[in-house]
Write a structure and sequence with these properties.
By secondary structure, this protein is an alpha/beta fold. Helix content is about 35%, strand content about 20%. It starts with a strand and ends with a helix.
């Protein structure tokens, strides 16, 4: 099945080109690609025009939340994928997503792919293997060889890119919450909006893989205080939400169970809100 792939980018043309090269090389389907261009004063717009790739252009950097929302009207497919421009998709990535979707008989779900990253951040959802931290040091052939044999089981707690969800669900919850602009902590916020909407199917797909060079655009941002915004909005910390509600990184064992926050934990969260 075809997806609409949304890729925000901010003067990051070489990584964007590498990302789109990987999509064209390693996808089973001819997916719609929509690039959200922030500024684009590095030749991004001219290159997209030349390649006849759909894009939304913002002359200033509007960040991830506003940028992704601005692309909604351009979506043509039933499912959207949110992908970072510093990601390189690997063979079977879209087929693995499609095979999972075929087993789900409803439109109330979020899926995430599995990242391969060059260094450990203590994230149980990723595979750690260094194939370069820049394009200059990128070991593409070695990565493809590793990917062909590496094993990763599906895991629970989808949230961050590469992220896939039904477009109708995206529209139902209003896409990204722009109070988190330019984007820090907008991923757990989107998952929480889905949780509040009754979604319980959050699944990470072990074989839908990307190589992630590591925040080549977000490190340039003046970051928002997303942790505090999330706590004040939802009355729980994002860490608690990921660990205790989404069960992030645990072995996939089906849709999540309902969750009741213990009274003691509610008091702790209330006190934390007072301090923010």
């Amino acid at each position: 099945m075809k997806f609409s792939i949304l890729i925000p980018t901010w003067n990051n043309l070489s990584y964007l080109q590498n990302c789109i090269h990987s999509i064209r090389s390693h996808s089973a389907e001819d997916h719609q690609i929509i690039v959200i261009v922030n500024e684009g004063n590095d030749g991004t717009v001219e290159w997209l025009d030349k390649e006849k790739i759909t894009y939304v252009h913002h002359k200033e950097n509007v960040g991830i939340c506003t940028g992704l929302n601005s692309a909604t009207d351009s979506i043509t497919e039933e499912y959207l994928v949110y992908l970072n421009d510093d990601m390189y998709v690997l063979p079977n990535w879209d087929s693995a997503f499609s095979e999972c979707i075929d087993t789900i008989n409803h439109k109330s779900f979020m899926l995430s792919g599995t990242m391969i990253e060059p260094s450990s951040t203590g994230n149980d959802c990723v595979l750690i293997q260094d194939f370069g931290t820049t394009l200059e040091s990128f070991q593409e052939k070695e990565l493809l060889k590793y990917h062909s044999t590496a094993q990763k089981q599906d895991w629970t707690g989808a949230s961050w890119p590469p992220m896939l969800m039904p477009v109708e669900l995206w529209k139902k919850v209003g896409g990204m919450s722009e109070e988190f602009s330019p984007g820090m902590y907008s991923d757990p916020d989107l998952s929480m909006k889905l949780w509040k909407e009754g979604v319980r199917y959050f699944r990470g797909i072990g074989n839908a893989r990307v190589y992630h060079f590591g925040s080549k655009s977000t490190r340039k941002l003046d970051k928002n205080i997303g942790r505090s915004i999330f706590l004040n909005k939802w009355s729980v910390t994002s860490r608690y939400f990921y660990s205790n509600i989404l069960k992030m990184g645990s072995l996939w064992n089906g849709p999540l169970a309902e969750h009741k926050e213990p009274l003691g934990q509610k008091i702790i969260h209330h006190l934390k809100k007072i301090r923010t």
